[in-house]
Specification:
The protein starts with a strand and ends in a 6-residue tail after the last helix. It has helices at about 30-40, 60-70, 75-80; strands spanning about 5-10, 15, 20, 25-30, 45. The chain is built from 3 helices and 5 strands; from the N terminus they run E-E-E-E-H-E-H-H. The chain has 2 domains: about 5-45; about 50-80, no CATH class. A hairpin with a 2-residue loop joins strand 2 (about 15) and strand 3 (about 20). The protein has about 90 residues and is an alpha+beta fold.
């Protein structure tokens, strides 16, 4: 199976893909080993900025889902999740 090199980010815990790792370490992983860690922001492909913030796509949707789970109105949750546009 093909492998690729990945850099451990500051977001990673003490273990990445079942291996003890620290921020800045280089790991050689297969695509299945890397998949969840990439989604979690624990690793980035080697050469990418390891300090880059993970994707924020879906965070508004997550906040809305969590609010609805608590019984809040989704419109109120959306308003609370977005920063105020006051000047």
């Amino acid at each position: 199976m093909d492998t690729s090199e990945y850099t451990v980010t500051d977001q990673a815990g003490p273990k990445v893909a079942g291996r003890v790792a620290a921020s800045g370490d280089i790991l050689t992983l297969t695509e299945p080993e890397a998949r969840a860690e990439l989604l979690a922001g624990a690793i980035v492909p080697k050469g990418a900025d390891s300090k880059a913030a993970p994707s924020q796509a879906g965070t508004k949707r997550l906040a809305d889902t969590q609010a609805r789970a608590r019984g809040a109105d989704s419109a109120k949750a959306e308003a609370a999740a977005e920063p105020s546009a006051q000047s």
